Amino acid sequence: LYVLFLLFQILGAVILGFGIWILADKTSFIAVLQMSSPSLKTGACILIGVGALTMLMGFLGCLGAVNEIRCLLGLYFTCLMLILLAQIAAALVIYFQKETLKVELSDIVVDLIEDYDPSDEDKRNLQDAWDYVQTQIACCGWTGAKEWENNEILKNKSNTEYPCSCSNRSKDFVEGRGFCVLDDPVNGTATYADWPVHEQGCMDGVEQWLKDNLGIILGVCTGVAVIELLGMILSISLCKNIHSEDYTKVPKS
């Protein structure tokens, strides 16, 4: 049982660290989301709170088991049950609202692409994060490069420039951000089809990453749920045993 309590403290530390990473990360797709969507920031804060609570519960559970304090074990069981129910509710919300979340995510990225401006220092971190995503996944736009034609700067330049982070040419990786000049624009104008960029949209790349790692994600979630269930069963069993002890057999002083 003590090993289980120790596992909960480790689990809490991992959840806490994951929440802090979401808030601190500036160079990945998570950064694009957390800078654009208040809900992800709220979720990260909730993760930090849950992580801290899980670590505290592990300590209280161990203290209650060592000293056979029923109220601490009962509090441990109750908090553990509430966290498990919250996790199940969150999973159900994500599952049934996945299309809504997908549309919201699409709107965030499309707005980012339309307003992309390398000279805007206020949005530099957000734009650098999106450049990093396009470079690492080897993609362009959310559903494809055509979305970049709606960018205000590129429209004013007749699309004779293109986003460097979308490029499939190694020489453009040196720049890594901003816009690169098209070598041979036709009649001084061009379309996204003339750009030397990746054809795949980043949505397909993100979905493929999720599919490739779905087994790991489900495995981790299942493992956490099993540990929580074991903690609930053992804590309530210990709590009942403490309650059922016959104190009349204790020698009187």
TrEMBL record:
One GO location term (cellular component): plasma membrane
Cellular compartment(s): Membrane
UniProt cross-references to Pfam families, sorted A to Z: Tetraspanin
Domain of life: Eukaryota
Main location: membrane
Keyword Transmembrane appears in the UniProt entry: yes
Record's bilayer topology term: Multi-pass membrane protein
Membrane-spanning residues: 6-24, 44-66, 72-96, 216-238
InterPro entries: Tetraspanin/Peripherin, Tetraspanin_animals, Tetraspanin_CS, Tetraspanin_EC2_sf
Family: Belongs to the tetraspanin (TM4SF) family.
Protein name, as recorded: Tetraspanin
Annotated organism of origin: Myiagra hebetior
Gene: Cd82
